[in-house]
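Quick one, probably user error.
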């Protein structure tokens, strides 16, 4: 089949899919409106307050030169482990702390500033764009499962798998001279404190920087909200059309080894589309706790097509390809599910012996945290991470001055 013919068929299929979706909105107006409203409430009540402080802080730290400065000192740690420059540590740290899609946005920003190569960016986005602890502990363990003591199992499995994915992706593009081709240029590394001032250049006033950071963050978050609403509607339509129940019947018949009941299989398919909807469905499914946790971990590792669309939007305008990211998500889902199954009993035993469940229940007793509570916790976490980065800058500056004085002496 010729390339032009494949492109023509692809265009016809895309148009047909959009047409079917538009007709479904007319056939199921009440259900799609309710699904859209649920997606809007999820974005406004959880996603917006959780991510906005991190987005703004990340924009400020990049344009103030803090990240470029730290990248010089973190290079000896990041490159041997993950074959990523030191500046990538910033994307990993904030991606782990705040959740997707901030890791993808920061990776794209680093690529636009030519601080990393195309291959390095594709390695970085594959494991820097992950779920945050606020989502895993607050939204999943407490809000959806109602089992705060399961937060530790889910977080350990997720972050161990994240490191595994990062190490696995270090071999990606290894044939291209460490990810840097002979025709590709990257801004050269700058040593010492000059990295910070070189990155700032003729930076505008801090007030203008803050305005630009807030506006850019809100634009990105508005798109994320649209993705959540659209995929919420799409998932509801597939349920109403009977496609998800049919696929779940198929899975339960061809995968008897995993002992999946229809509820769990249907929930897993929903999780392929949208992470929050899928996890909520798994939490309500009739299955054993360990089965629920394994499927939830796999869904968190996969993160859903909704998040993948957000990642595709974040990296738009760069040469970062989405295919390595999708492959890494599949690997992450498998690793997370297996790791959860291995950690469930030992971590649960340690948890009960230490008596930590009572403490967590006292601190996370709310089942539906308010928007202000989430915003306050997110601001605190963002401020803490920002303070840590600033302290690292100060320590690195002092170390640089001490070494410089000793060399001159």
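Nope, works fine. Designed sequence:
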């Amino acid at each position: 089949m010729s390339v032009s013919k494949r492109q023509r068929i692809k265009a016809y299929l895309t148009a047909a899919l959009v047409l079917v979706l538009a007709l479904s909105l007319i056939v199921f107006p009440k259900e799609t409106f309710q699904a859209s409203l649920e997606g809007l409430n999820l974005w406004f009540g959880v996603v917006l307050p959780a991510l906005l402080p991190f987005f703004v802080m990340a924009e400020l730290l990049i344009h103030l030169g803090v990240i470029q400065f730290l990248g010089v000192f973190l290079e000896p740690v990041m490159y041997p482990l993950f074959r990523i420059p030191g500046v990538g540590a910033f994307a990993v740290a904030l991606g782990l702390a705040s959740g997707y899609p901030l890791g993808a946005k920061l990776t794209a920003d680093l690529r636009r500033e030519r601080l990393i190569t195309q291959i390095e960016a594709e390695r970085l986005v594959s494991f820097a764009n992950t779920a945050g602890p606020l989502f895993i502990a607050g939204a999943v363990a407490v809000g959806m499962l109602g089992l705060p003591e399961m937060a530790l199992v889910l977080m350990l499995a997720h972050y161990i798998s994240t490191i595994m994915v990062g190490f696995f992706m270090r071999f990606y593009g290894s044939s291209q001279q460490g990810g840097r081709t002979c025709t590709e240029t990257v801004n050269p590394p700058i040593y010492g404190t000059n990295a910070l001032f070189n990155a700032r250049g003729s930076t505008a006033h801090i007030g203008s920087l803050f305005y630009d950071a807030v506006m850019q963050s809100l634009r990105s978050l508005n798109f994320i909200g649209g993705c959540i609403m659209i995929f919420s509607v799409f998932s509801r339509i597939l349920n109403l059309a009977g496609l998800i129940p049919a696929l779940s019947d198929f899975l339960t018949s061809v995968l008897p080894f995993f002992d999946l009941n229809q509820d769990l299989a249907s929930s897993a398919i929903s999780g392929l589309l949208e992470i929050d909807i899928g996890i909520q469905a798994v939490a309500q499914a009739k299955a054993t706790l360990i089965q629920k946790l394994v499927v939830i971990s796999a869904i968190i590792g996969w993160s859903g097509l909704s998040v993948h669309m957000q990642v595709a939007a974040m990296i738009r305008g760069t040469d970062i390809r989405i295919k390595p990211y999708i492959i890494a998500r599949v690997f992450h889902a498998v690793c997370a599910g297996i790791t959860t199954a291995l950690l469930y009993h030992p971590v649960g035993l340690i948890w009960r012996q230490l008596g930590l469940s009572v403490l967590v229940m006292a601190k996370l007793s709310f089942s539906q945290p308010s928007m202000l509570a989430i915003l306050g916790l997110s601001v605190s976490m963002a401020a803490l991470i920002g303070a840590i980065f600033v302290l690292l800058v100060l320590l690195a500056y002092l170390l640089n001055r001490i070494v410089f004085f000793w060399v001159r002496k």
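The chain has a mean pLDDT of 77.
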